[in-house]
Amino acid sequence: MATHKSVIKRARQNEVRNVRNKSKRTRVKSVTKTVHAAISAGSPEGARAALAAAIPVIDKAGLKGVLHRNTASRKISKLTKKVNALTS
Questions:
Q1: DSSP characters over the chain
Q2: Which of 16, 17, 61, 87 shows the greatest Cβ crowding within 10 Å of its Cβ?
Q3: pTM of the model
Q4: Residue ranges per domain, the chain?
């Protein structure tokens, strides 16, 4: 185990951040699954509503550094393409 005060504090901070980031990653997966479920159900209105709810969650995860910015952008883009393909 670490003996320096700064290392002990860093370990404590990492534990807190790990829990926080894990919940944000799980939330991103949940909203993504919701959009996919609406797409597979074939309801364009439901898919659009789920996408509108998912975009801010994914964006925020990208801004906070939980996901890389480009990864967040890619996820949003792929979901949007699928919803648009369903509606057209």
A1: ---SHHHHHHHHHHHHHHHHHHHHHHHHHHHHHHHHHHHHHT-HHHHHHHHHHHHHHHHHHHHHTSS-HHHHHHHHHHHHHHHHHHH-
A2: 61
A3: 0.85
A4: 41-88
